[in-house]
Amino acid sequence: MSSDTKGALLDVVKGGVVSVTLFAAFLNLPVIGLPAAALTPFPALYFGLKRGNRAGIGLVLLAAVLVALAGGPEASVLYLGQSALLALALGWGVARGYSASRSIATAVLVTLGLAAAAAAVYSVASGVDLHERVVAGIRESISQALSLYEKRGIKGDELKPFRDALEQGGEVLSRLYPALLLIGQSIVAGINVMLLRRFANRLPAPIRIAPFNSFRNPDYLVWVAIAVGFSLLIDNNVVNAAALNVATVAGFLYFLQGLAIVRHYFETYSVPALLRYLFYAMLVMQAYLAIAVALLGLFDLWADFRRPRKPKNL
User: Do residues 279 and 239 both lie within one domain?
Assistant: First the structure.
């Protein structure tokens, strides 16, 4: 066995163990598990690009077997659908020289498309309405949260504001969970691509990943947003639900473009790290600031805020 083959096998084993560890943290640790879930695709993505497609697939299969042994077949299926497929699809796009945004879009659409197809087949075969099951799960979570408040002594009129807020939030989730799933998967893919950019110098071939502050949506997205706005005027529940989901995704994409503009100016004017962190903290806490950033991304279509300005002649 050659040294390259031994190195590849060692990387597959190391990557498989890391993937399983991260995925186990996601399943067993409620808070810490969320960042771990976002990083779970990275070992397969990185070693697949470093050692080739066979190594990436072998790593995924090894991790799936280990997850099945530790957590059962359902956990293994969840790993394959949530992390493994995303890693392989991302690696496929990056290896072919796709831009970061195109690689992410391709991987997310492939992953969620296959998941939706599998869900549709399961729904038809079992006769189970998956949408109703999701809605029922959301309502059950709300009931559990309200019971927790009651156990802590919050009852009657004191509980009403919490009940109203949770019920309104549950109604929003029941209508927008497809868009939120797409956004969540896109964030996970973006985190892995940005992390891959940091390790790009360790890969055998150069990869095409531009910095985030250059991100820009295609110009035709504005026409999608306009069409969605008119669709919301149609008195049809199905059309309105679809339009709201598309509008949510479009708003998220323009938010990313606005955030890229902000990052561009942070780097152009060397804004101190403390001020950057304060801005990001306010962005999380203030919804109006997030809307302003999304509008900044939308208006970039006409203003082109990152265009180099010619110095004025004195």
Answer: yes
Tokens of 64: 């799936």
Q: Do 112 and 215 share a domain, yes or no?
A: no
Report the Cα 56 to chain-centroid distance in Å. 21
Return the pLDDT at 148.
Answer: 82
DSSP secondary structure letter of residue 204: S
Q: What is the pLDDT of residues 49-81, one digit of tens each?
A: 999 999 999 999 999 999 999 989 999 999 999
d(CA 297, CA 150): 43
pTM over 0.85: yes
Distances (CA, A) of 31 to 35, 36, 88, 94, 243: 8, 9, 26, 31, 32
Residues 6+ apart with CB under 8 A from 149: 159, 162
The candidate with the shortest Cα–Cα distance to 256, out of 281, 283, 277, 275, is 283
Three-state secondary-structure class, residue 14: helix
Domain count for the chain, please give it: 2
Residues 6+ apart with CB under 8 A from 82: 37, 40
Q: How far apart are CA 18 and CA 60, in angstroms?
A: 11
Output the CA–CA distances (angstroms, integers) from residue 161 to 66, 166, 199, in the order listed.
45, 9, 48
